[in-house]
Records
---
Amino acid sequence: MLGGDGFVARLFGGLDLGGDMLQSATVTLTDAQIKALPTTPVALVAGVVNRIVVPTQGVLSKAFAASYTNIGADAYLEVVTQSNWDVLDLLLNVSATGRTDLTNWLTAGQALHFLSPLPQAELLPGLHTNLATFEYGAGDVAAPIVLKLSGNPGDLTGGDPANQLAITVFFLTVALL
């Protein structure tokens, strides 16, 4: 957790965050876990009783010895709440426009991708929301934040046993009234 050395207080100039500290969680996926993403979401942040976990940003980091193939033309990697609302920017393929961000990301090499709150109604109208106007549902109370591959994702062949994908999520937990 950030803040043990006063970093968060210095970063926010003593800003009162409602008694909650900015926290982080990092999960590193193996090649087998990456290949399983089309059917098996990965929990990034555990749920907290009587609280809602609110991601503020994140970072994807990869070290791939070999690329993944058979990625769906409309697949997208997303960070979502229990009720399936996207809360952080995502990597996606959009067949209608020829966009291949996810396919490009899943190629061999090392890279970072920064995740920010979603202002992306223009990407997939009607499917996603802006975090600033998002209303959490009852299913989001005490629920985890997960990483999943959606949108007719394909079955992710290829890769290499040495491949690793790490995601760090920064978040607050907000008490309910």
Note: The mean pLDDT is 78.
---
Amino acid sequence: MSLTKALERGINSATYNPEAEKALAEERKKASEAKQTYREGLFKLRDTKTQMVQNKQATEYFIKNVDKLTDDGFKWLTANPDADVQTITDQATSTSEKFQDIGKANIVLLGLTVLPAFYKTVASDAFLKKQISEDKKKELDAFADSLATWLKTSATATSEQISNKQQEVQVKSQELLQGTGESVPAVTNTESAVKVEKKVAEKQVTVKKEEEAEKNTFQLKRLIKETYSTAVKVIGSLFIAMLFLVSGMLTANDAIGRDNQYRILYFLYGGLGFPFMLIYYLYRWFFGSAPHIYKLLPLYTEEADTSLGRFFFYPFTYKEDQAAIDAKTKFMTEAANLVGKEYKPPAQKLANNLGSLVSGLQGLVMNVGSAAKRGTNSILQGIERMEISNGKN
């Protein structure tokens, strides 16, 4: 036996305490049982969440926070393998308290979730019964929409924010529901939330039927109101369309020096940006530099052969004048200069070609004249030789 082994055995023999070792083993056993109990509790929380989701009693807030709570619990067990019974018990108690807070906030959210439909139903019903004005109905509908918007983001809210929202809704509801004979339905647990939601859904069906029946009943005042509303929408749409066309027309005619595809793009972009383009051309008009208007969208310079064609292409057919030609020449010259080339207008090219043709014709005439002269001389010389020959004979 080595000296080291002998020393280790001696130390263990000297320090060994059976009672202490037994107590330590008992403590470890209790800690292990506490961990297992805590672990089982976390699984039960997940099972509770799953059951509540199936029963439609869980909000997104509840699902998200319970998942985080259980995940944090399992991570804690992994990170604290040597925790004692008291530490584990404290952790389990903290998890239980947090779950209760999440459950309370879930009930509050369930109660708030049914309110948008409740407010709209109450507003429609009270308006049909002439208990509230149209402005009051719009106010109720707007409050319902704002609450519905907040509920979409409630999954990330804190329990304190949810509680504050509940108090705010209660105060506002007392004001908005005056004269309707209704009050905010009380939701104290998940079961009552389901019952309230069902009751609101039944009320919605009833109110919808009443609205349909009311619409089928002739009312002169409603007819005048709906006609006025429709007329305003139609006139407004036509006015917007007119502004689009005017702005597009100004922009397309301002691009008279460009090719057709660019004029079409200018027309579309100018029309879509009419609030800015109309101000721009109004400014130019004020200083006398507004573009000349050829047609709505000038594309063609030759008219169609048929009267029907001329009718349909009238907004797109224009008479090209010198200003349009000059604009084209100016744009093409500037574009050619940018790439280091020279632009020759079609008229100049034609003149050059005609000059070359005239020169060619002049040369041809001179050549034909010379050839004719030479031929004539040859014929005359031949005749003279024949006459001389005949004289000798």
Note: The CA atoms of residues 105 and 158 lie 9 Å apart.
---
Amino acid sequence: MKINKVILFNLASNFFLMGNIITTQFLIFPFYKDINSSTFMTYSSIQFKTSFVLLLIPMLIDIITSFILYRQPSTKKLSLQSYPLYISIIILMAILIQFIIFGILTQGFHIIALKSIILLNWLRVIGWSLKSLIAFILILKNKPSSEAV
């Protein structure tokens, strides 16, 4: 697969994941405090499971394409194409921490747990934004020359 296609798949998965997180931040989490306590655990559990199913494939695409970019030959030890994988590892750590916190929320509303998830989501948005910027730079660096066309 040509490197530009890998970069485009990476960019598309980043945009999808970023859009989902931003939507969640503004449309789902603000209403958590308004859900009555008798249905909160059920709602939180359903939201967590739905998010997992919805985001699994884009996250796998993101990680796989980041790894492919990392494996591309480069003359520099820390080249720009390495950064998406490093950022993906940070994002994965945030997600693992969120799994633990979502476990707390499935037991009932907890304001500190919710604020922690929101903070970690913003960290993921920043990570995917940086990865998108890097993907744009890589596309510009790898664009075919006008002589090749």
Note: The chain has one domain: 3-141.
